[in-house]
Amino acid sequence: MEIVANDLESYLEHTTDEENSLLKRVNRETYLKETMPHMLSGHYQGRVLSLLSKLVAPKRILEIGTFTGYATLCLAEGLQQDGILHTIDINEEQQERVQGYFDGSEFADKIRYHIGDAAEIIPTLNETFDLVFIDADKKRNLYYFETIINQVPSGGLILIDNVLWKGKVLDSKPDNQTKQIIDLNARLAQDKRVEKVILPIRDGLFALRKK
């Protein structure tokens, strides 16, 4: 099964648009320098995020969980000409390198990189977000969703990553972290404020459109 999965991933990557040189660099250096490089969105999911962002054509984007900035750069591709992307991460050790990626991109003047607790930073932004990508502390996903839902206009898109949790959501005896994700998915499935669908991309991407 692992060989089939790897072959399928390779096939998907070869049938979508290529990464640009900066994204290839971020990808390569993440795998060289990070202890958990699998947290990177990667080529295929990055192209999905880029396409979704272009379809929304957001003026304002919020990303919760920057990591090494790969998804940030992909999401920024859909920004309107005067658009701004706010991205928040708590790990200041990566700040200099990730800021360097942003500064070297065509979106240098559009990305606002915040270091700190997202729960404290979001209220200070005073923005309305057309697109939100939640990819941080999984235990707080529902909190983040409830925090930003009123800052998303009708037609806005909220994306939440890792909602299939390597298939563990189907376990008969899930661990505590998996239970939290199962609970999140169940609550979102019943939420009448949004239209929703889980896309089985990598570790599962919940797409929710504000009504």
UniProtKB/TrEMBL annotation:
Keywords: Methyltransferase, S-adenosyl-L-methionine, Transferase. One of its GO terms (biological process) is methylation. Pfam families: Methyltransf_3 (PF01596). SUPFAM superfamilies: S-adenosyl-L-methionine-dependent methyltransferases. PROSITE patterns: SAM_OMT_I. The keyword Transferase applies. This is Methyltransferase. GO terms for molecular function: O-methyltransferase activity; S-adenosylmethionine-dependent methyltransferase activity.
